[in-house]
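Minutes, methods subgroup
Present: GH (chair), OT, SY

1. OT presented the first of two proteins processed in the latest run. Sequence and structure tokens recorded below as shown on screen.
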Amino acid sequence: MRFLSATDDRQAKIVVVGAPYEEGSSYRKGSALAPAAIRRASHSIESYSAVTDADLNQVSFWDAGDLSLSPEPEQALDEICRALAGYWGEGKRVVLLGGDHSVTIGAVRALLVHYPKAQVVILDAHSDMRDDYDGRPFSHACTARRIRELVSDRIVLCGVRSLFGAEDRQAFASPQELVQRLDLNRPLYLSIDMDALDPSLCPGVGNPEPGGLSYQDVVGLLSALEPFACVGLDIVEVHPPYDPAEVTAVVAAKLIQEAMLIFWRDLKRSVGVGPA
């Protein structure tokens, strides 16, 4: 099943790809089922967006299906990196459907091959700044730490309300501060961990954390990021076994639709965004 109105056009400037990987999870399992669940949920929403007054049917994008990934963390991240680097090398914009949040490490590795000065925004309930978790350096609890090692200070986290230590705070921004922490001259990668949202809205996540962003908050952040040259994004940590009403998958699908329309409905703007 494809995501919403995806076409067979492999030349499309936008590609959706699934990473059904959950070996980085530390609590609940089930995020490997998320790409299929998000695609299925996408067929419950309209292609037209009242937020952007635009229709995803008017945007050409290709759903490349799911990657076949090793259960071994370093190998799986290398496989993600190689696949996405190929798409960015073709000048495409990438939408990655996780999987647990560790898949973002592979995505950012690939991003930096073609956009070495890119900046990363992560929406997440957790700081994910541990050096390792249970001896695992590629646990999803280490995602932001591994990415910070790749991009230095070009990482900003928003929505965090559970942190490993006070030293993590230097990478945090409130929703009101987020845009001020970014550079308009650098390409942007956006990672949305669904536990950034209030678990009363999105309960089907791996590590629910009380409080959090509303759906409207996240859409507002997407709109605030519209001026930036977003070259890729991911949605991670949907856990279908803990999402009995499928509302988390539906919200994830809707956020992907809104993000694609906010960032890429005018493809003339995204064409020509070269490495920076």
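2. SY then presented the second protein from the same run.
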Amino acid sequence: MIHESAVVDPGARIGARTAIWHFCHVMGGAEIGADCSFGQGCFVAAGVRVGARVRVQNHVSLFEGVTLADEVFVGPGAVFTNVMNPRAQISRRHEYRPTRVLHGATIGANATILPGVTIGEHAFVAAGALVRRDVGAFELVAGVPATRRGWMSRHGARLVPDEEGRARCPATGERYQLEGGVMALVR
């Protein structure tokens, strides 16, 4: 479903059952997977890769170098950048840094993601956070600059590790293990 006010340039690849809502612009060369939703006023640059079942809320711009894996959620007004020190009079396209958001991660409303970082699987970036370093799998970060505030399960519930680093999702019962500052799902 592409709304009549949206602009999808030739050469853009849009997966089945993906919704592109009011006043969006998807450039040629962008790839968006199946079953996604892009809210009002979104922009997707050439070269951006978006997986399947991704939700991008209103007024989010995905600039060249951004990759969103499957089942990522991006809250309204979140900001992605691709150059560390932009100047209007100096072209820095050769300095673009790739930004990757891995499977199942959440980016909260109005969060800012600086270029060159990786947001780990099922990580959770709180609303308004400024992310300037990589975020680990299942890590919950908040603040300016964003710092670790805890851990989140795949379901999106807070994990509280015991003294041996074991945690259980209160919603699903899934088990997790924290070792050396890295949280992992126990399979």
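Chair's summary of item 2: The two ends are 38 Å apart (CA to CA).
Next meeting: continue with the remaining queue.
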